[in-house]
TrEMBL record:
Alphabetical UniProt keywords: Acyltransferase, Lipid biosynthesis, Lipid metabolism, Phospholipid biosynthesis, Phospholipid metabolism, Transferase
InterPro entries documented for this protein: AGP_acyltrans, Plipid/glycerol_acylTrfase
One Gene Ontology cellular component annotation held by this UniProt entry: plasma membrane
Biological processes, Gene Ontology terms: CDP-diacylglycerol biosynthetic process; phosphatidic acid biosynthetic process
UniProt keyword NADP, yes or no: no
Domain notes: The HXXXXD motif is essential for acyltransferase activity and may constitute the binding site for the phosphate moiety of the glycerol-3-phosphate.
The protein's name: 1-acyl-sn-glycerol-3-phosphate acyltransferase
Phospholipid/glycerol acyltransferase domain location: 68-183
Amino acid sequence: MLYLIRMLLLGMHFLLAGVLGLLIGLCRPFNPDNSRIFARLYAWPIGGLLRLRVKAEVGPLFDQPPGCVIIANHQSNFDLFVLGNVVPPRTVCIGKKSLGWIPFFGQIFWLGGNILVDRSNAYHARQALHSTTQIVRHNNTSIWIFPEGTRNPESQLLDFKSGAFRLAIEAGVPIVPVCVSRYAQRMRLNRWNSGNVIIRSLAPIATSGLGKDDIPALIQQCREQMQRCIDTMENELQSA
């Protein structure tokens, strides 16, 4: 019963946040700080409604000025609510084109200046990457990317796709990894307290002076650092 009540209230909140976000987006379309505001709207019920206790340790993320590539592990659709409070100013996201068809959410995603990519069209994907590189390089804006490319609640990270790393090297900006503990494996919405989550950002990784040949090593470095951090957070939660 608690699960059904929560999902009903969460659905109502999703629609309300979408309407409010749409009004904000129409008043200031494509403002690069819209996404942060929209993320806060969606994340608002995480403590009171979902009863997920989130511990955010993201100093390096907020210390880094806008104009970087942020990479994070992607577990479930609930990431929208879990990660919403740690989206830094002037940050937009890359998402698949189909997101644009979700009522309200798709429209505010677009109005937030986020990048919609048709992954089935290689030419369109390359053009989107080029446009995104220019945004990062010249618009004082950061890009948030899930390098696994799909949802993954398992203990081991999937292989990272190269787009985020290619973008960071071409733009000459640092990469900031953001790690989220494996909450999706433990979240129980039929209980009063749904679980605990740790979000931890790592130190920025410089890309200046790197070229295309350095991409595989850069991917491995970021993936290994994030995997170690996630494993450490899991151990901390189990011993708490």
